[in-house]
Design a protein that fits this description.
The chain is an alpha/beta fold. 38% of the residues lie in helices and 21% in strands. The longest helix has 28 residues.
Length: 265
């Protein structure tokens, strides 16, 4: 099974290539001095260097069988959705819709229209602020996350306790999650980092599908050893059609897209 981050392997390949290139250059240099280098030797050297050069454009989604996707916000700027839809192996995208009680992502409206147009399955997410009134946050999210535009269940991004104790934070969060479920008639997908989950949420959200963020070569193992649906494996992914870094994720094991499809009632 192919690993889902090529960064470290690519760096190792670069180091090995530099060492081999140095050896070849030295060999060519000494051969020129003694007059032993033929035209065929030169061509063979060029072929060797070309064949062993790692391709920086090869990504995990090009080499493995996992179902891959993205999450995007205004930080990615203007996305060339035709390129993303037609020239990559991305299957789904979660778009930032809102944050807290009044923030609306400036690119959400365009992104959701264009992602649909170019064939990606689309979901919307809200960045949760524990100190902001939950009803106000819900209204903000509802203003953008319209059921008729959703292919995937809503996602709630959970990254901060807001300085609250774990118990008070969890009371706040669970109240908000209940409100979201009541409106959309399905439990949202929860997104958080492994360490945050282990410290504050382990054993408390077993009824929810979970996307875990951890940027390492190996998939994260949670403190309670629970199964989770998706893994965000890098925040520094590259993809044609998007300038700069982008978050990439994939499904774990036998989990698949059907599990997070939005159920339209």
């Amino acid at each position: 099974m192919a690993r889902c981050r090529l960064d470290s392997h690519y760096e190792i390949s670069i180091v090995k290539l530099k060492m081999k290139t140095k050896q070849i250059v030295l060999s060519v240099f000494f051969s020129l001095i003694v007059g032993q280098l033929s035209a065929q030797d030169v061509q063979n050297t060029q072929d060797t260097l070309t064949a062993e050069k790692p391709n920086p454009y090869v990504q995990c989604e090009d080499t493995c069988q996992h179902i891959h996707g993205l999450d995007l916000s205004h930080y990615q700027g203007n996305v060339f959705w035709e390129t993303v839809g037609d020239r990559t192996n991305m299957t789904y995208v979660y778009l930032k819709a809102t944050e807290g009680g009044d923030r609306i992502d400036a690119t959400f409206e365009r992104n959701i229209e264009m992602a649909h147009r170019h064939g990606l399955k689309v979901g919307s997410y809200h960045f949760y602020r524990p100190l902001t009134d939950q009803q106000k946050q819900l209204k903000n999210f509802m203003s953008q996350c319209l059921p008729g535009e959703q292919d995937l269940i809503p996602m709630i991004d959970i990254e901060s306790t807001g300085g609250l104790s774990t118990d008070v934070f969890c009371d706040s969060l669970f109240y908000f999650l209940d409100l979201v479920e009541e409106v959309y008639h399905q439990k949202p997908l929860l997104y958080t980092f492994r360490n945050f989950y282990n410290r504050h949420l382990a054993g408390k959200i077993d009824d929810y599908k979970l996307m875990v963020a951890m940027y390492t070569d190996e998939a994260p193992v949670l403190a309670d050893d629970r199964d989770y649906t998706m893994w965000q494996y890098t925040a520094k992914g590259r993809i044609v059609g998007i300038n700069g870094f982008v978050d990439k994720s994939r499904f774990m094991g036998d989990h698949n897209l059907r599990e997070i499809r939005f159920k339209h009632h």
